[in-house]
Design brief:
Layout lengths: L1 E4 L5 H13 L3 E6 L4 E6 L6 H6 L4 E5 L19 E3 L2 E3 L5 E5 L6 H14 L3 E3 L17 H14 L3 E4 L6 H7 L2 E4 L7 H8 L5 E4 L6 H13 L5 E5 L17 H8 L4 E3 L1 H5 L5 H10 L4 E5 L17 H17 L5
Parallel strand pairs: 7-8, 7-14, 8-9, 9-10, 10-11, 11-12, 12-13, 13-14
Antiparallel strand pairs: 1-3, 1-4, 2-3, 5-6
Helix pairs in contact: 3-4, 3-11, 6-7, 10-11
């Protein structure tokens, strides 16, 4: 349930309500929005609880949250959450584009890419240091060496970066370097990992699982939120269907559906959704038109020789063209890019 405070409730009144709820053994999640201040209350209700809390000074009403995802729901927070990643705000009027290679290969590759994508208008750099692959024989990433390259390049070029964390044991290591943590599709329901990133103060991008329902996706986000990390961005990256002409099937309907159910911002990965570079532009246009808050796009200086995901990676010129052609769509949606 949520406790909705009066518009004029004082800090002392809010603290008094929090203290009483804590004394009763409830978990409390505080949200101060533009329109109202609410306290998300997690725990088993006891007889007479609603009446006793509603009678307290400063309390307007108590509203039960019917959805299983409590903290991710619109009931808990009506305004879209704006996630700040080292100054880049995801969920604001400006669309955020993250761009870079699937995998970090060497410093030269990352430096060239970072400069190119920033010049074209990207707000963030992406790159994988740890690469969970379908085949155990495929390139698995440079691990900490890759993180060092990402941080060095990021600071030199002046662009924050997002990178994937795969193992709960590596969370502290990745947090030391990254501006934003990515949870990949294969780990969406790795609940131990979700809890660990939830304990950090780093923003998290949670990708939708290969065959996850929207409710399952939001419940995965709930694991992170319930640990106290409210800086969560959802990423639609295509789901597995019977269709084989593309790598995955981009679920555009997920974007407005999430916007109706949750306050969390949503970005789209057209590269993984399609697996083909010529589809990145039309899918990006469609994603923005559907209400996405940003995009994450794979870009490589030499896609033909990329160690991972070459067929879906854009060249520097190709990315620059995509960014220019997205401007009219962004303007039509009253957003900037």
């Amino acid at each position: 349930m949520i406790v909705v405070m009066n518009e004029g409730a004082t800090e002392a009144q809010i603290e008094h309500v929090k203290e009483k709820l804590a004394a009763l053994g409830f978990g409390i999640h505080y949200s101060k929005g533009v329109e109202r201040t609410v306290l998300g209350v997690i725990g088993q209700k006891s007889p007479g609880l609603l009446e006793s809390i509603e009678a307290m000074e400063g309390v307007e009403k108590i509203v039960p949250i019917m959805k299983p995802f409590k903290l991710a729901s619109q009931e808990f927070k009506r305004e879209t959450t704006i996630v700040d990643v080292s100054g880049v705000k995801i969920g604001s009027s400006k669309l955020v584009v993250m761009a870079g290679p699937c995998a970090v290969e060497n410093e030269e590759q990352m430096l060239l890419t970072a400069k190119a994508v920033k010049k074209a208008g990207a707000s963030m750099l992406r790159g994988g240091a740890f690469k969970p692959r379908t085949s155990p024989y495929a390139f698995q990433g440079l691990e900490e060496d890759g993180l060092k390259i990402l941080k060095q390049v990021s600071r030199e070029v002046g662009i924050p970066f997002v990178t994937e964390v795969v193992n709960p044991r590596d969370v502290d290591l990745v947090v030391e370097y990254a501006d934003m943590l990515q949870i990949g599709a294969r780990n969406m329901q790795n609940f131990t990992l979700l809890k660990e990133v939830g304990k950090t103060k780093k923003p998290v991008m949670l990708k939708r699982g290969l065959a996850a329902t929207i409710e399952e996706w939001l419940m995965a986000a709930e694991y992170i939120l319930s640990e106290g990390n409210y800086d969560v961005v959802l990423c639609e990256r295509g789901i597995r269907t019977y269709e084989t002409s593309t790598r995955n099937t981009l679920d555009l309907s997920a974007i407005p559906t999430i916007k109706r159910l949750s306050h969390l911002p949503v970005v789209v990965d057209p590269s993984h959704a399609s697996g083909k570079r010529h589809l990145v532009l039309p899918l990006s246009r469609a994603a923005i038109a559907a209400g996405a808050d940003g995009l994450i796009i794979e870009v490589h200086p030499d896609p033909e020789n990329a160690l991972s995901d070459g067929p879906q990676s854009l060249t520097f010129d190709g990315f620059d063209e995509v960014m220019k052609k997205l401007e009219p769509i962004a303007t039509a949606m009253e957003r900037q890019i």
